[in-house]
Amino acid sequence: MTHVFHRNPRQTLEFAVRSEGIRLFDRQGRGYIDASGGAAVSCLGHGHPDVIAAVKKQLDEVAYAHSSFFTTQVCEDLADFLAQRAPGDLNHVYFVSGGSEAVEAALKLARQYFVEIGQPSRRHFIARRQSYHGNTLGALAIGGNAWRREPFLPLLVEAHHVSPCYAYRDQQPGETDEQYAQRLADELEAKILELGPQNVAAFVAETVVGATAGVLPPVRTYFQRIREVCDRHGVLLILDEVMSGMGRTGRLFACEEDGIAPDIVTIAKGLGAGYQPIGAMLASSRIYDAIVQGSGFFQHGHTYMGHATACAAALAVQQVIERDDLLQNVLNRGEQLRAALRRELGEHPNVGDIRGRGLFVGVEFVADRADKRALDPKLRTHAVLKKRAMENGLMMYPMGGTIDGVRGDHVLLAPPFICTADDIEEIVARFTETVRGLLPG
Ligand code: PMP
Questions:
Q1: Ligand 1 centroid to 21 CA: how many Å?
Q2: How much distance in Å is there from the Cα of 371 to the middle of ligand 1?
Q3: Of 278, 305, 323, which residue sits at a domain end?
Q4: Domain check: are 33 and 73 in the same one?
Q5: Which PROSITE patterns has this protein been placed in (predicted)?
Q6: Which among 3, 228, 261, 339 has the fewest CB atoms less than 10 Å away?
Q7: All residues at 6 or more sequence positions from 276 whose CB lies less than 8 Å from its CB, including other chains
Q8: Is 301 helix (H, G, I), strand (E, B) or coil?
């Protein structure tokens, strides 16, 4: 009998007792390559001495000081670091403990902004199907994952959904990226007009989709067209980079690649790289100033916001990434990872698509490459792949189930930014062995 309630009782888990570099070790001393960074978290790998030293130093000085009594130097320094590097004028940083908290804060900030500037009718949020924004009630409400939402529907605030940018399944033959992007932006605009622009607060999207559909990078110009639609109707653009931000795609903020800046961005996983729980929301000066000049402060807060030890860990993580030029490695190793997966599995009959950006890579499995039909849900392919990968000493993040009527089996690979070329080859070898062991083709 176990007393731990947060894990699936049908699963038997090994105990992680040691970690080093790109590997975790169990009680028998078996090593597992962390090829998914847990859930795209451990971007620096495990046991990084500089981060450990920074955390120890902070624990010795001030582990925690409540944000209504004190600030700390590491909290201020981390905010400066992020604001100086963020696109646009995302100059104001609000630290929380994780991704869902960051998204909740973003939704409430957008709402309060419109109340402050005298547009209180703006209360609707539009998001996308096949999206995930967190498990707290507000974040769950805007998420587009029917399976996660269904049991809680009576408790969820009303949200509206439009199509995701899912080129593999939705881009029509002969349709260019630009035409596809325009079609999706037109759909968003139609939804805004249907609700009445004066009633819409924000459009929320993951810059690169992660946890629902095996990594979906947007097509070229998608976010430029979306930004134009939002601007035309006074709707805020909130980008959720909880998974895709902080260098995962090879840029500190994933939207830099798309050539736009949102009004609010959320980050979390790679921010503290798992050394401490931390997330953040960055808001533009326009929003911050309206609130300061209005009621004076954002009506929100959590006990652990701006947690000193969490900020110390995150600052050390971000400084190491910059000092060691790891984003260049993310770009190089990401190219290598996708090329090697295509070399080994590109022609496999059950591998429909291999896609991604930087070290954020998804593989979509299908029953038939020709018609992209999904595998039989009863096979639970994604879950079986995960189990077999663990037997092969490889951690990869599975995703599956019926999402908004679309059945899918996906795997997410998000190896640490410190991976060498040899590490990538080993990950691909173990991954290929796992896939071919279950789906011989
Ligand atoms: N947004 C996105 C895009 C995510 O991927 C996640 C977590 N998978 C969340 C929000 C929620 O973050 P957390 O689990 O830290 O609450």
A1: 24
A2: 32
A3: 323
A4: no
A5: AA_TRANSFER_CLASS_3
A6: 3
A7: 55, 307, 309, 310, 312, 313, 314
A8: coil
**How many angstroms does the Cα of residue 103 sit away from the middle of ligand 1?**
8
Domain with 76 in it: what CATH number?
Answer: 3.40.640.10
The answer to which of 5-14, 118-127, 403-412 has the lowest mean pLDDT is 403-412
Q: How far is the CA of 29 from the centre of ligand 1 (A)?
A: 31
CA angle 192, 98, 385 (to 5 degrees): 90
Say how many domains are in the chain: 2
CB atoms within 10 A of CB 56: 12
What per-residue confidence (pLDDT) applies to 90?
A: 98
Q: Considering the chain, what percentage of its residues have pLDDT values greater than 70? A: 98
Both 407 and 419 in one domain: the answer is yes
Question: 203, exposed or middle or buried, with CB in 10 Å at 0-12, 13-18, 19+?
Answer: buried
**Ligand 1 contact, 240 CB (< 6 A):** yes
Neighbouring-strand partners of residue 277: none
Question: Is residue 70 domain-shared with residue 182, that is, in the same domain?
Answer: yes
Domain presence at residue 166: yes
CB-ligand 1 contact for 132 (6 Å cutoff):
yes
Atom of ligand 1 nearest to the CA of 98: 15
Residue 405 pLDDT > 70: no
- Whether 143 lines ligand 1, by a CB cut-off of 6 Å, is no
Q: Which domain holds residue 405?
A: 16-47+325-438
CATH number of the CATH domain containing 393 = 3.90.1150.10
The mean per-residue pLDDT over the stretch 307-329 comes to 98
From the list 221, 230, 222, the residue with the least C-alpha distance to 203 is 230
**pTM value?**
0.98
Ligand 1 atom, smallest distance to 241 CA: 3
- Boundary residue ending a domain (272, 288, 323): 323
Write down the pLDDT at residue 146: 82
